[in-house]
Structures are given as C-alpha cells and as structure tokens.
Amino acid sequence: MEIIIKNISPLPQAKIIFEGLTVIAGENDTGKSTLGKLIFSIIKADNMATANQPRQQLMNTMINLVFDSQISNDGKVIVQDKGVPIYSIKFSQNQCSSFEFQATNFSLKETTFIQTPFVWDLIDFFDSVLRLKQNQELTQNISPFSFKYPYLFWDVYIKITNTPIKNNLKTNKLVKNIQNIIQGSFEQHNQKIVFQRQKESILLMNVAAGIKYFGLLQRLAENNQLNSNHVLIFDEPENHLHPEWQLLLAHLLVDLVNQHKVYVLVNSHSPYMIEALKIYSDRNIKEKTHFYLNQLTDMGIKVNEVTNDLSIVFEKLSLPFQKLEQTASSFWCR
After folding, report:
1. Which residue from 151, 156, 154, 49 is spatially nearest to 112, judged by alpha carbons?
2. Which residue positions in the chain have pLDDT lower than 70?
3. Topology annotation, domain 1-109+228-334
4. Which of 147, 195, 217, 246 could form a disulfide with 272 if both were Cys (CB 3.0 to 4.6 A apart)?
C-alpha cells in the first residue's frame, strides 16, 4: 500500500509505503503524528461507512474528532495498492470535500492509535462518559449529550475494556509472551481492571507506565484487535520505556507483522527503538519494512525514505549529545 499526501498540515507532500512495518523518525513537530492520525482517520471512515453515513461524512467526523477540524485548506490524499487507487480524498477549508473509493481485494479491517499508556488512568472518566451515552440512548427527552473528549483515547478504552475473548492459539501465545515480559496480567476483578502479579492485585494508578504500555497490547490481543489486516499505530512509545524494554517492544512489534500479519506504524526519535526495529525486521520482514526521516528544511518538512541507509537518522539523533559534549568541554576549559 502506498500513501501519497499533498498539503496535509504541516506536510506539503509525502509518499509513504505501508506494507508491514513502517517507521518514521524525526524531531518534534515534523508531521510524524499527523501521518499516523491521517491513516487512522481514513481507515475508520472507510470501515464505519454505510448507505446513511457515507465515507465523506464520516471523514469529516474524524477530522473533527482527531484533528479538531484543522487538517488542510487545499489538500489531497491518494491510497493505492500496486498502483491501483483505493481511496482518493480531497480537502478544502479543513473539510473533506470528496472521498472516492474503489473496491479491491485489499482491505484494512481496523486501526488503533496508541498515544500514551495513561489511557488506563482515564478508565473511570470514560466509564462515566459511556454511562451518559447509554442514558441518552434510553432517554429521548433529555438534552443532547455533547462535550469534547480525546477520541483516540476513547477508541483504545473501548477496545481494552471489553471482555477478553481468548479463542485464538496464536493470540494466546502473544498474550503469554507479554505477560512474561511484565511478570503479570491485566485482569477484570469485580468490574474493575487491575494488574495481577502472582497473588497481588495492584490498582491501575499504582502500575508503572512501561507496564501499562505492554498491558494495552495484552488487552488488544485478547480482544482480537491485533489480527491480520489490522493497523497498529504507535506514537513515540519510547517516552515511557527503559531502553531494555524498548528493545522488547521492538521485537514484539516485528513479531506482530511477521506472525500476525498486523500492519504497524511507529513514530520515534529513539535510537534504541529505531535500531532495534531495523535489526529485528531484517531477520524476517526486511522486504515489508520501510524507514523514513522527517526533516524541517527551508522548503518545509521533507519526508525521505532511508530504508537502505539509516546513518542520517542516527546522525540527526546524535546531535543533542554532540551539543552537550561541546557545552561540557567549554565549561571545563574555563
């Protein structure tokens, strides 16, 4: 699958190949998250489309929920598979002005965008939101229930709080692998999710952020959200992980692509995460892996594929260390 982008804020243009594992490196504010949110929104709009709610209408809903109605004044996105267009989407004045779809044998069934492990800390809040939504559906004479909440978090919340299905041998193996890493399991106890470690039930607020990250994957796997043709988008997962656990997560993500046929997009500025993804993917999914570097230039943000040579990525990521060494040297030379 190839995604061609023109004038999607803040990206003037980009071409991304999405075949299995796609990794986008770069500094902050270079459009990495924008690419992930765009892919998420397109897949959601496509999968939720009905005769009464066409793709264009749902894409506008996603623009409101995911981009807060700020995506492009005059932009275009084309998604194609082997040169055959699947989606052709145009934007005008921060609205989707057209969403053309051509049926092919290629389809993406679902997508999940993981932005932070602290979704777990919002469960009580989202439980209240869910009750209000259900009450609105049952009671017709109340005022419409409407207030803004983070939709990306809500989507993850719905997927991790469902009752686990556990009916797939391959999924069970994945879940056990995650449980071995975190030495415990996220389980439902008395209508509450807790982290169970041996005989101790630990409240979510007392669980380390790194464990919560892997816990998200455990619950997504149990609820059949990490299956073939599903898309998993990880936005800078290294922010809450020790380097050793970054390597473990990288190995796990490559396995999702290789064994479970999940499409994985990772945005990162961690040399540990990027190098680990490169090493692990070279073993089994090299032909399905693509690396990109987003850079701010005089002409705007450029998105360049660097799959065959990551040296420029590591050079960019090492610049802060070089600046720090220069600062230290000047301090000691005084």
Report:
1. 156
2. 136-148, 166-167, 331-334
3. Rossmann fold (3.40.50)
4. 246
